[in-house]
Amino acid sequence: MPETQDPHVTQPSSVKFVYDFTEGNKELKDLLGGKGANLAEMTNLGLPVPPGFTITTEACKVYLDSGTEPAALRAEVSEHLDALEQQMGKKLGQADDPLLVSVRSGAKFSMPGMMDTVLNIGLSDASVSGLAAQAGDERFAWDSYRRLIQMFGKTVLGVDGELFEEALEEAKQAKGVRVDIDLDAADLKSLVAHFKDIVSKETGRDFPQEPREQMDLAVRAVFDSWNTDRAKLYRRQERIPGDLGTAVNVCSMVFGNLGPDSGTGVAFTRDPASGHQGVYGDYLQNAQGEDVVAGIRNTVPLADLENIDKASYDELMQIMETLETHYKDLCDIEFTIERGKLWMLQTRVGKRTAGAAFRIATQLVDQGLIDEAEALQRVNGAQLAQLMFPRFDLGAKSETIGRGIAASPGAAVGKAVFDSYTAVKWSRSGEKVILIRRETNPDDLNGMIAAEGILTSRGGKTSHAAVVARGMGKTCVCGAEELEVDTKSRRLTTSDGTVIEEGDVVSIDGSTGKVYAGEVPVVPSPVVEYFEGRMHAGAEDADELVKAVHRIMAYADRVRRLRVRANADNAEDAARARRFGAQGIGLCRTEHMFLGERREMVERLILADTESDREAALSQLLPLQKADFIELFESMDGLPVTVRLLDPPLHEFLPDITELSVRVALAEARKDANENDLRLLQAVHKLHEQNPMLGLRGVRLGLVIPGLFAMQVRAIAEAAAERKNAKGDPRAEIMIPLVGTVQELEIVREEAEQVIAEVEKAHGVSLKLTLGTMIELPRAALTAGQIAESADFFSFGTNDLTQTVWGFSRDDVEASFFTAYLEKGIFGVSPFETIDKDGVGSLVRNAAAAGRATRPDLKLGVCGEHGGDPESVHFFHEAGLDYVSCSPFRIPVARLEAGRAAAESKGSDSR
Question: Which residues of this protein are catalytic (predicted)?
């Protein structure tokens, strides 16, 4: 992609800012944006695309950086506009036979509804009559003019869109009609005058009559829309970089609002909700494109077009097959029919639900369009995680209050809210909410993100609500026409008169389109049942999905290099992890074994004054620890189990200093103070720490409390010995936590090896126990070469490493200022969710390389929460780690992403 130009330097003549549709192709998305690149591709395929040109993302970046367009842009636009006028045989906005154009955004990545579009550019008081004469339809001309003023006023001039909507509603009420197509030419002419008055009153200027001024201002508005709040919010949600900019597409207008033989629609080559092949989409007669997407009029199914206009329908079906075969994927298509002539306005690889993604990927393999490696790249871990969420128990008693279009699957339950502000407010207070609207628009994005699901009474599978919900993985039901939504009164009324007030609980099923009053119980996902070894015996559709997941997971497991282990502290979690495909335990946190009744034993150990007290506490703990490890080794027989020695912040095993102080003070006031409490308070004061996470914990605790780590090592070794003598195959790995220097590791290792030797001798076995360390401190990462001299393995503890590298206390910062950091764009995502590749990641890479330089056979893994994060898994693959470890439920996601990382790496190497 060309480098961004310094706006203060004259751009060389070789820089090209405008491309005709005939000049580009689908590979130029960085430069032409997705829409422009695909319009060019369709033009190259010989499909009926209205002529036009694209202003590049580079021009947008110059504008955003400097506040003004590149010096060469106006001349280039004029050159391409002249060529377009010659091709069309008419001039932009000429009075008798005007050329009209649309000005549309088009970023590299699809951002549906987030940026601006203006249609009918070139209409004016002087040319509207010419358009009417040209079309032989006065109503059409005035309808197009009112649309231009409405879109231009809101998008370009910043007029409140509600003012136009209110004026339109008033016109319909005065006429006694419900839909705008029932307004005649005289009504629309009056509405145009009203709209122009609104523009003059709200902006202090008249609606611009010069066509080129309209176009130039619209182009600038599209550039500006890249940085609107809603666009930035959407990019953060979808992790789209903020420095890409948008292209602008200037396209000659074709009109779907020329009468019953005209219309506009959106089509999918397969169902984006289920993945099934068939005829899917929406069509609206006598309408322009925004009517479909906005959901302000309910569409008819695309299949109905065959009866309305069979010739256009047949041509569209042929084009859809051409595009899907060419793109080798589900295609999302926008089209217009102008008096029986079909025009293609856009295509893109369509957004789809998680289930559809898996089904479509395997279908395309079966059709020979893609191979298994490409199918693996067509799905991702986030989609797999969605498929593992519970779904409604259809056998439970429930009150169905309506049904709409199943636009985005899932089972969502929450309190009814009727505006985005309330959705965000209640959600931040911990409430689960369902956002209910007549139809959504881009301004509702905050509420859609906050809600568990979205319900609309208008629109179809191609409406704004449906498209955005599918992209975010949100449950959505659209077009529930029998439900009357009153946003002002904040209520929903069903066809039988049942009223749902704001705050009432509703349930929506994005797989069936059903809407329920109250909370509907949920059951496990069939995909989870598959991973646990219980194939779903219910719906055929679910079985089809399970088969698709199975095929892709099987391929991912064949090609991945990274092994996947589990973070598990007990036999139950270990057994579930193994069913989910875990190849061992990467982190057993032994401190979790000392909660409940055992906590007092650890407390006595830490507070022990004498050697005999300490040994007594250790002797109590040893058999309990040994029993824990025997269960773990049985559950994971034949697979590695990494046991981290005790690593609690000290305060977790001591009495609360405030409560103890109050108890002692009250006792002293009553003159019946307990000697043990006084001694305990003195000891707790002595051990009290201002920052326990950086205090006496990990290896430091093992070095300060004699016998603690030796007891744990003995318990591990004896459990392994007994398991081995019982013909088992225990593979224990002992991990020393919070090491900052090799000397700490050397001392603990020497003690551990002595204990292991004693156990081997006593049980008559040879134990192959390995000893390693967790790299979770910057110093450990920086001196990894030295530490590797005494370590058989490294496991990166990226939770603590992130805290210590950033200087963040995770328990505090996520609740205090992370929201502000995300909103300001300082973070694209929390560094605790996805690894910070530049900072923490750099330490991981360097430590891995230094460790292997010292010890080439050093085993490398990661056991922080990042081990189950899709993006982070790819990083760990690239960094050369041997395995990732994560919570049991995230194991399938990690397996899938490890396969995707391997396939992606292989594809890059072959290129």
Answer: 464 (tele-phosphohistidine intermediate), 863 (proton donor)
